[in-house]
Specification:
Blueprint (H helix, E strand, L loop, with lengths): L2 H18 L4 H11 L3 H6 L1 H5 L2 H5 L4 E10 L5 E12 L5 E7 L5 H18 L4 E7 L8 H15 L8 E4 L6 H15 L20 H19 L8 E4 L4 H12 L3 E2 L1 E4 L2 E4 L6 H10 L5 H6 L4 E4 L10 E3 L9 H9 L4 E3 L8 H9 L3 E3 L1 H4 L1 H15 L6 H25 L6 H19 L4
Parallel strand pairs: 3-4, 3-5, 6-7, 6-11, 11-12, 12-13
Antiparallel strand pairs: 1-2, 2-4, 8-9, 9-10
The structure holds NADPH dihydro-nicotinamide-adenine-dinucleotide phosphate and (2Z)-2-iminopentanedioic acid.
């Protein structure tokens, strides 16, 4: 297999997808980001081409779209659209989160499901890739409305999932509260207390220690591994973090624990800067307990300031953790980060950096960690939750964090090794894509044309 033939094959596959999925820009972006890096892996494995691996990989095994009717607090009928894309189960049951956000559509869910295939493979936890969600917007909804929505959503979803088939979890807009309501309805509909059907559960009824912290902690552990490899450290360095949800909060907590100084947090209304380092207790109070806007942090912290709308990447720092949403770090943001001397960008969110910005950062010598690798600690810990549920076991916090730490080291090392093996040492994008791809492709090859 020559380089040119592999490239031509990839181009043909991509062209088919562009025609078939022309109205799915986020999915095509995620697909192109992976396909663009697979030439060396295909040169080494021509058997993947003969087996039609790429053609099958980019087509979900199953896509479910459903109506979600519910009554709001005024007793008015509301209707949202629900999704579950079961993308690839070669390595294990479909696994991936549910996103509730007004921007959710099939393209967004397919991009997330596609990324999840490779991410999950990197964790070596034997889980397939899937994603779901709804265009329901939880902002400003009462607890009762969120509960009724979740019950209606699960009334359709339950027939497509179980602990051996497809195991959803949280993502944007879906946290412990929503997982609780979803699980309650699943249990009522099936009559089974099947712990392993969802992850991110409350700790007294089957949730794993460290699952709440895992994605943010894991992204910081991954950054630490990258820095350690070049003899550097997080200690004493300033960090900018975007977002103020589950991933951002625990990234900020771990950066602080490791001696770094996280100076920002944001939400869709703007960002806060706290030169003393974000006060994690106050951040949790504002965002987790009160579900308030991030400006409330600055209102209560004397020296912090709130910047409405602006770009968090304008704040100078050596470490950057985009932890909010897709395409939030553009060329403009990357340029600002480079001007301030950024050393590392580690993606806590999924696909937060635009393709052009990724190239710019990499070409400038920044250590760049793609979400597939850097944020894989969340789903990896979900897999640990599934193991504990299956064994009716419960690990303590320390044991769970030690496992997470080891998994992130392993994801880092296998990603780095793949970047070396396929010719661009230190290109973690190439490394994560090829390492994940080869694992899934080998499983698909073994299992025949299905
Ligand atoms: P949360 O809902 O807890 O928090 C999301 C945060 O991002 C909020 O601060 C939110 O602000 C902000 N945000 C969301 N959408 C936008 C937008 N369009 N523009 C600006 N800000 C936005 O979600 P998570 O922290 O769980 O998820 C964050 C990212 O991490 C997502 O990309 C997710 O896919 C990814 N991820 C999550 C994992 C997990 O375990 N939870 C695992 C791996 C990846 P606002 O409230 O104003 O909307
Ligand atoms: O994007 C992700 O990896 C998640 N939202 C977590 C998925 C999971 O199943 O824990």
């Amino acid at each position: 297999m020559t380089h040119a033939a592999a490239k031509a094959h990839i181009e043909a596959v991509a062209e088919t997808a562009r025609t078939r999925s022309h109205n799915e820009p986020e999915f095509l972006q995620a697909m192109d980001e992976v396909l663009d890096t697979l030439v060396p892996a295909l040169v080494e494995h021509p058997e993947f081409i003969e087996a039609g691996i790429l053609e099958r990989l980019i087509e979900p095994e199953r896509q479910i779209i459903f109506r979600v009717p519910w009554l709001d607090d005024q007793n008015r009928v509301q209707v949202n659209r629900g999704f579950r894309v079961q993308f690839n189960s070669a390595l294990g049951p479909f696994k991936g989160g549910l996103r509730f956000h007004s921007s959710v559509n099939l393209s967004v869910i397919k991009f997330l499901g596609f990324e999840q295939i490779f991410k999950n493979a990197l964790t070596r936890q034997r889980i397939g890739g899937g994603k779901g969600g709804s265009d329901f917007d939880p902002h400003g909804k009462s607890d009762a409305e969120v509960m009724r929505f979740c019950q209606s959503f699960m009334t359709e979803l339950y027939r497509h999932i179980d602990d051996q088939t497809d195991v959803p979890a949280g993502d944007i807009g879906v946290g412990a509260r929503e997982i609780g309501y979803l699980f309650g309805q699943y249990r009522r509909l099936t009559g089974r207390h099947e712990s392993g059907v969802l992850t991110g559960k409350g700790k007294v009824w089957g949730g794993a220690e460290v699952r709440t912290e895992a994605t943010g902690y894991g992204a910081v552990f991954f950054a630490q591994e990258m820095l350690n490899r070049t003899g550097e450290d997080i200690d004493g360095r300033r960090a900018v973090v975007s977002g103020s949800g589950n991933v951002a909060i625990y990234a900020i907590e771990k950066i602080t624990q490791l001696g770094g100084v996280p100076v920002t947090a944001s939400d869709s209304s703007g960002y806060v800067v706290d030169e003393q380092g974000i006060d994690i207790g106050l951040l949790k109070q504002v965002k987790e307990v009160e579900r308030a806007r991030i400006s409330e942090y600055a209102a209560r912290k004397p020296n912090a300031r709130f910047v409405a709308n602006g770009s968090v990447w304008d704040v100078p720092a050596e470490l950057a953790f985009p932890c909010a949403t897709q395409n939030e770090l553009t060329v403009q943001g990357a340029r600002a980060l480079l001007d301030s001397g950024v050393r590392i960008v580690a993606e806590g969110a999924n696909m937060p950096t635009t393709p052009e910005a990724v190239v710019m950062l990499q070409q400038s010598g920044v250590l760049f960690a793609p979400g597939k690798a850097a944020n894989s600690g969340g789903v990896a810990t979900s897999a640990l939750e599934m193991s504990q549920n299956a064994a009716r076991d419960r690990w303590d916090f320390e044991q769970s964090e030690t496992r997470l730490r080891a998994i992130m080291r392993d994801v880092h090392d296998s990603t780095y090794e793949a970047s070396e093996r396929f010719g661009r040492p230190g290109d973690y994008v190439l490394g994560a894509n090829t390492a994940g791809f080869v694992t899934v492709a080998e499983a698909m090859l073994d299992q025949g044309v299905i």
